[in-house]
Amino acid sequence: MKVLVAGATGLIGAAVCARLSKEGHEVYRVVRPNGSRCFSESREIVLDVAKALDPADWHRHLSGVDAVVNCVGVLQKGLHDSPRAVHQSAAAALFKACAQTGVTKVIHFSAIGVDRLQLSPFSSSKLAGDEALTALDLDWVILRPAVVLGRPAYGASALFRGLAALPLLPVMPNTGRLQVVQLEDVVSTVEFFLRPDSPSRVAVELAGPEALLMSEVIDHYRRWFGWRKAREFVIPGGASRVLYRLGDLAGALGWRPPMRTNAAKEITRGATGDPQPWMRMTGIQPSSLSSTLATNPATVQEQWFARLYFVKPAIFVVLPFFWIMTGIIALTTGWRSGVELLSNTAVSALAEPTVVAGALADIAVGTLIAWRSTARLGLWAAIGISLFYGVSGTILRPGLWNEPLGPLMKILPILVVHFVALAILAER
Asked: What pLDDT, on a 0 to 100 scale, did the predictor assign at position 269?
């Protein structure tokens, strides 16, 4: 069977592509420009789904396709993301294109509870996408999973591991229970509904067998890592709102933090549902989180990831702050010191313009690192400038290597931090 998978680089989409390829299906992976490149046995379709808002944008990609699995989803509006465009407009265009090109089988991922209550643009746009599909004469299946967890660390799977690594566990107020569902069970469900004899025109909730508090989910991961239960403290409502707003700010800069105001609205409801219809229809017995973790022991690499999870945003806050403030200080309170540092050197005649140029370069580098789409360029530029400062400082002021505060010596750990940032930059 030829299957087109939209959202093929996400947690669910990547796993679906891997399973279907393994089972002998011909898989067409829809990936965004500059997206992940993998699965050599499948074909890639480079397409920005958020801009594919007309059925004609999909027609040529659906030629000869037997089924479509739509796994596309974004939490909140950001620099490159729009729930309304992706969940509603682009989804409707894809579904209409399927009807127009003869692709009758469509499996669409929604979210649990959106048919009962729409608390944010995420859930309201998800429901609008569901309604666009059900209005068409297609063999549609709508899957509404709760929080999906799997071995790959992305989204909630990554967040829970990161929280598990904290010695003091911050507990957000007003969070509902979660019936977390395992990625393998979700993928098996897709495989089931792709069978020719499977039911269609159904909406199915995919929920795990246990309704857990978020702190209980995190405690499961701590035991998985071999760590004792963490001490908990409740974050005050005002502080939690500030954290969610900071997440929104990061989203506006192109980053995708899981904790944003849409998430705050959605987690008050929790993610619970009735798994019995799903179980009766497919014969799948959803695995509990504890049993899944018990059969997949944690590795040291996963401990590294968990411990680095909150180190990463700290790095990408500190580095832009460091570079931008260095430039501002050089142009203001540190101006005289910078000029005097270059006095009586080979460039003393150009001391003032040199300080200005260096300051502007620092500010530009910090801005590039802060902006997600240019962060890699900014990190390499920072490394280049740091090396330049080290070499030129050694030539012009070699005595700085012997200064108590180590102005040149500090370049070495700064370089290491930038290489670490490059190593952990990728999100999926």
From this structure: 80
Angle at CA of residue 143, ends 141 and 145, nearest 5°: 175
pLDDT of 37 above 60:
no
The amino acid that residue 284 corresponds to is I
Q: Which residue has the higher pLDDT, 46 or 40?
A: 46
Which residues neighbour 245 within 8 Å (Cβ) at sequence distance 6 or greater? 261
Beta carbons of 125 and 211 less than 8 angstroms apart: no
Share of the chain above pLDDT 90, in %: 74
pLDDT at 309 over 80: yes
CB atoms near residue 95 (< 10 Å): 25
Give the pLDDT mean for 393-421.
93
355's tokens: 């300080």
Residue 40 has pLDDT above 70, yes or no: no
Beta-bridged to residue 67, according to DSSP, are 3, 105
Tokens of 304: 């590294």
Q: What is the 3-state secondary structure (H, E, C) of the chain?
A: CEEEEECCCCHHHHHHHHHHHHCCCEEEEEECCCCCCCCCCCEEEECCHHHCCCCHHHHHHHCCCCEEEECCCCCCCCCCCCHHHHHHHHHHHHHHHHHHHCCCEEEEECCCCCCCCCCCHHHHHHHHHHHHHHCCCCEEEEEEECCEECCCCCCHHHHHHHHHCCCEEEECCCCCCECCEEHHHHHHHHHHHCCCCCCCCEEEEECCCCCECHHHHHHHHHHHHCCCCCEEEECCHHHHHHHHHHHHHHHHCCCCCCCCHHHHHHHHHCECCCCHHHHHHHCCCCCCHHHHHHCCCCCHHHHHHHHHCCHHHHHHHHHHHHHHHHHHHHHCCCHHHHHHHHCCCCCHHHHHHHHHHHHHHHHHHHHHHHCHHHHHHHHHHHHHHHHHHHHHHHHHCHHHHHCCCCCCCCHHHHHHHHHHHHHCCCCC
Burial class (CB in 10 A: 0-12, 13-18, 19+), 104: middle
Residue 38 is predicted with a pLDDT of: 57
Phi/psi for 145 (5° steps) reads -80, 150
User: With 70 as the cut, is the pLDDT of residue 190 above it?
Assistant: yes
CA contacts within 13 A on the Cβ side of 110: 29
Q: Which two tokens stand for residue 170?
A: 């911050």
